[in-house]
Amino acid sequence: MKLKTFAAATLAVATVIGMSACGGSGSSSDDKTITFWHNASAGEGRQYWENLAKSFESANPGTKVEVQAIQNEDFAGKLQTAMQDPASGPDVFMSLGGAKTQEMIDAGQVMDLTDKISDTVKTDMKTTLSAATFDGKVYGVPVSVEPGGMWYSKDLFKKAGVSDVPATYEDLLADAKKLKDSGTDAIALGAKDAWPAAHWYYWLVLRECSPEVYDKSVQDHDFSNECWVNAGKKLQELNDLKAFNDGFLTTTAQQGANSSAGLLANHKAAMELMGAWEPGVLKDLTPDQKPMADLGFFAFPEVAGGEGEPGALMGGVTYFCVNPKASQTSIDFVNYMGEKKNQEDYAKAFSTIPASEPARGVVTDESLKQVIEYLDKAPSMQLWMDTALGTNIGNALNAAVVNMLSGQGSPEDIVKAMEDAAQKG
């Protein structure tokens, strides 16, 4: 698989749910003590990082890893504030990805790890390392690869008489109507967090625009091609169908049983558009806090008449960066993340696909196996659009999509919001 325009990918989205956790930070003056920030604020994911820190300390006597779990929706803002002065920021931290990480590199807030990553990382992550590579230099160690797509309840599809997953967007509209008629919400959407709603627009642009137009638009911030407006019109069709859950504008994405993920996990909605972190989120929200038994996955449908590359995916790679003022202990810690056993344990804890190719044999979840199949045959994978476009344009895009869905804007307004943000720089 070619990781196209994927030179700096990561998730700007959650891997797990939970309460916000925060506390003091600071690049430690003690070479053996490091501060570590991640966004796994609950469940097995949070425990994984606690366990990894302890095992690292045991393997490296005298070291201390001070772990801080920060709720995903708060993570970017806290990190950007803390790293305004790297001396007061965390030593090791989850990347923001794409243009956001590039901005931090340009500001001197991320260490160049090109000559510091281990041979294991170089060999086992030869594909996913491109996600953390900027201008030929490596700035992070990956832990997972997470393409997006549609997650659904097989039981609810069967109940509604939907025998096959939709191959086209038109099929999706027809299936959404069947699901509604069966008495269930067709699609769970946590639009309060903005990015889940915008993901629908990202995917439709990917299907509507040709690869050449898409690449040029993202690189040059030129959104004049009609495919950008057409994508908004397609999304409006779904909105007019009332396919989303009631109250989707005030629904969060992952925080509790009433979130959009919770609606899917508890069979109150039939499907959700999310990244490959979804099984890990859902298992913490099911009634028995076990993996969702009837969970299935299918790639985002093609759009009839669209010029997008068939089978192309969108997603990210989660990777961890090091503060440029951090010690060798921090470098050792990110390399430790990349060891095969730790990658296998990561995949189990987060119910996701590890960045390490040799560790992928540990994946047993059938829905994730389906994702790997799509991943292996995909011609390319684009980075999440808001991450690729950077903070200013990405935030304007996400807000504009929500405005349209709330009846306060149009497809043309989405394009204008991005153009205005691009002009402001």
TrEMBL record:
Residues 1-20 form the signal peptide. The keyword Signal applies. It holds the Pfam family SBP_bac_1. SUPFAM superfamilies: Periplasmic binding protein-like II (SSF53850). Gene3D superfamilies: Periplasmic binding protein-like II. Keywords: Signal. The keyword Signal applies. InterPro entries: Bact_solute-bd_prot1, SBP. This is Sugar ABC transporter substrate-binding protein. It comes from Bifidobacterium pseudolongum subsp. globosum.
